[in-house]
Design a protein that fits this description.
Number of strands: 15
CATH class of the largest domain: Mainly Beta
Strand content: 25-35%
CATH topology of the largest domain: Tumour Suppressor Smad4
Shape: globular
Distance between the termini: 17 Å
């Protein structure tokens, strides 16, 4: 980054020091040093528990800060967007966390210097958010198998493991997961899935550490892209799984894609629901697109 001195402007950074196996703390220190070298006054808010990042984001909005820098993973970013939604404060991201799907979906540069340059110099643009069971999501929400996998990841963190990859969590979850009946309403049209594996509701194309679940999804088109997976044997699910990383699920047996504004889903079984990998309910899912809900850099 070319060195250019700024007046003593204020930058707020929301940091999850536990993300990325601890690498985020070091990254945040480097980013702070770089910004201070450029003449900024940097306020760093360190998260210590769930929803801290949302509280910090809401505080930033109330103080009239126009740009907030998030240094962390997808979970931290999800908390921050729930504090920034419908505000005039724009989201910027610095991350080196493996599997950061928010960065991929927003086409974030790979190096910290490039990410900071984008934060400082790019023009904010509006993007859509999804909302599921009252919680906003940036990337993908869903229920069924993918929510069960996200639950496995979250439980690993609770038990003291800082990071478990999506693939590793999937391999642990597959053997004990059983398909279930889904009753679905997509923009008023009723569908029944007798042997449903999962329903992914995408605002962005990528989730789960690089899986291209909805390659056609765009974050500013005013639509949700829905991927429904059912009518497969366990062996077929195993055989189909690798194609999601290539973005080539469409056309596979048991896979259906739809675009919609709203989707409702219920199941008689124990239906886990997630938003960007965070658990947001059981039994039912109601998701909708919220156009132009967030400014991003």
């Amino acid at each position: 980054m070319a060195i250019q001195r700024y007046s003593s402007e204020r930058v707020v950074a929301i940091v999850n020091p536990y993300a990325g196996k601890g690498e985020v703390r070091a990254l945040a220190e480097r980013a702070q040093q770089q910004l201070e070298l450029l003449g900024f006054h940097v306020d760093v808010y360190l998260t210590a528990g769930r929803r801290d990042a949302t509280t910090f984001a809401q505080r930033t909005v109330s103080e009239g800060v126009t740009r907030v820098l998030v240094i962390g993973g997808d979970g931290t970013i999800n908390e921050v967007i729930n504090g920034l939604v419908h505000s005039e404060t724009a989201l910027g991201i610095v991350t080196a966390v493996s599997g950061n799907d928010s960065g991929r979906n927003l086409d974030l540069p790979k190096t910290m210097d490039e990410q900071l340059n984008r934060f400082l110099h790019s023009t904010p643009r509006h993007i859509d958010l999804g909302r599921v069971n009252g919680r906003y999501f940036l990337n993908v929400a869903g229920c069924g198998l993918d929510a069960a996998i996200a639950y496995t990841q979250n439980q690993a963190v609770v038990s003291g493991q800082r990071h478990v990859s999506y693939t590793r969590a999937a391999l642990a979850t597959f053997p004990r997961f059983r398909p279930m009946r889904f009753s679905i309403e997509i923009d008023g049209e009723h569908l029944e899935m007798q042997r449903g594996w999962m329903v992914a509701v995408a605002n962005g194309p990528i989730y789960g550490g690089g899986m291209k679940i909805a390659p056609q999804a765009k974050m500013d088109d005013g639509w949700l892209d829905v991927c429904l997976i059912g009518d497969m044997s366990t062996v077929q699910v195993y055989a189909t799984f690798p194609f999601v990383f290539l973005g080539k699920l469409e056309g596979k047996h048991g896979v259906t894609y739809r675009k919609c504004k709203q989707i409702k889903l219920a199941s008689p079984g124990n239906l886990l629901v997630h938003a960007d990998g965070e658990m947001v309910g059981k039994r039912s899912m109601e998701a909708e697109i919220v156009p132009q809900a967030l400014w991003v850099l």
